[in-house]
Amino acid sequence: MYVNLQLIGRLTKTPSFRYTNSGTEVCNFTVAADAGYKSNKKTQYIDCVAWQGAAKYIAKYIHKGYLVFVEGEMTVKTNKTKNGVYKNPELTVRKFKPLSDPDATKRDYKPKVNDIDEKESDNTEVKEETEFDDNIDVDDLDTPF
Q1: pLDDT at 18 over 80
Q2: For the segment 78-116, what is each residue's pLDDT rounded down to a tens digit?
Q3: Separation CA 42–CA 116 (nearest Å)
């Protein structure tokens, strides 16, 4: 069964970024989303995990307080403790979109860029740029129009 969840909320802290043992990028963060109105307002905290390119982007450019749109698959992780069974919902990010930076209204605003530890690539081969022949005669081309 696939449970798709969409939410808009704010990050509760700066995302944590790491590499798995196989070298895949992973980023964990928590989104606080409000439901209800005034006295009936309740805040839900959803743990999220992003992989590969999305993980690098989120870790580098998104920080605490950002308003974000997140969509993905909801799973529930079960942990057994002395006190019983603890269920923790987690959202695996499929779509992500930053909506606003909380500091963007300040006068001397400069976006924050978080430092992430870039893993060195195993492929050290440098490919040369392809040179293009700019001397193409248009009449020689077989164009349909």
Answers
A1: yes
A2: 888 888 888 888 899 999 988 887 776 666 666 667 766
A3: 33
The helix or strand, by DSSP H or E, that contains position 114, with its residue range, turns out to be: none
In the Cβ-directed half-sphere of 51, how many Cα atoms lie within 13 Å? 10
8 A C-beta contact, residue 10 and residue 39 = no
CA dihedral (62, 63, 67, 68) in degrees, to 10, reads 40
Instruction: Provide the sign of the torsion angle of the four alpha carbons 114, 119, 124, 125, taken in this order.
Output: negative
What pLDDT is attached to residue 12?
93
The CA distance from 142 to 55, in Å, is 45
> What class is the 4-115 domain?
mainly beta
Domain boundaries, the chain: 4-115
Global pTM reads 0.69
